Amino acid sequence: MDKAGWYTEEWAGQGSAISLRVKDKVHDEQSSYQRIEIYETETFGTLMTLDGLVMVTDRDNFVYHEMMSHPTLFTHQAPRRVLIIGGGDCGTLREVLKHDEVEHVDQVELDERVTRVAERFFPELCAANDDPRAHLHFQDGIRWVADAKPGSYDVIIVDSTDPIGPAAGLFGKAFYADCHRALKADGIVVGQSESPLFHATLIKAMHEAFRDADFLDVATIHFPQCTYPSGWWSATMARKGATLTGFREEACRERAFATRYYNAGIHQAAFASPEFLFKTLL
Question: What is the pTM of this model?
Answer without folding.
Answer: 0.97
